[in-house]
Amino acid sequence: MKLHVGCAMWTHAAWQGSLLPHPLPPRERLRAYASWCNAVEGNTTFYATPSAATAASWAEQTAPDFRFLLKLPKQITHERRLADTDGLLRSFLDVVEPLGPRVHALWVQLPASFGPSDLGTLAAFLHRVPRGLRCTVEVRHPAFFEDPRWERRLEGVLNDVGAEWTSFDTTDLFAAPPSSAAEREAWQKKPRLPRRSRALTEHPVVRYIGRDELGQEQLGRDGAQPTAAGWRHWTGTVADWLREGRSPTVFLHTPDNEQALSLARRFHDGVSSLVPGLEPLPEPVPTGPPTLF
């Protein structure tokens, strides 16, 4: 059994020299990240489509079973709201084609205004995605979480094409008032929605955002860092999915993401303690040259 875990990015200034080697040329940064995690969110593709050469370099730096969750460009999801996007989608897929099986899923993140009245548009779009490409859809309209009728309707649209419903869990982020600048910014930008942990397919996707680690005063009652204390629901859920034969992918976030790499591996360790035989993650590359002592 194998669990895929990752972060929101593969390069972060706070990791350089402490968790990842520094300096690193751009074409080696993903390779170093991939020694820590076996998946990554492709957030950058929302803002700018990479060149085919860049996508090829990503493939060169990762193993064939490394997972990219590629966010569709904002022109497709936010500006055109999935309507009249065949050409844009085809161009995007052509560019990322060098990644091959590493494209675990196309991440269809929709704006909060995309609601029940837009389900027909979503259904039509998903039916136009080439067969063989997996989709995971992230919705933020409250009706899908608060009204069982619309929850069932959305599940029906997704089930019809074998698409997953991305679980974006911010409940622990909003469990206590923000205590850092990054947490205050996250409170302004992240959706405050109920936790949803129902898998529709064999490939569930979880995006979990916790809290920043600020010091001893932020530890939980049992001495656990607040993000790790908050994800216990997910270690149990993911362990159950693995026992059922599912292949989950879990992304760990904090508002400042300074500890996200370490937290992703700690999450994997937590699931491993519940699921004997889970395949281990690779050994991280050393941050500096070896020494004699």
TrEMBL record:
InterPro entries assigned: DUF72 (IPR002763), UPF0759_sf (IPR036520)
One Pfam family this sequence matches: DUF72
Transmembrane spans: none
Descriptive protein name: DUF72 domain-containing protein
Species for this entry: Streptacidiphilus cavernicola
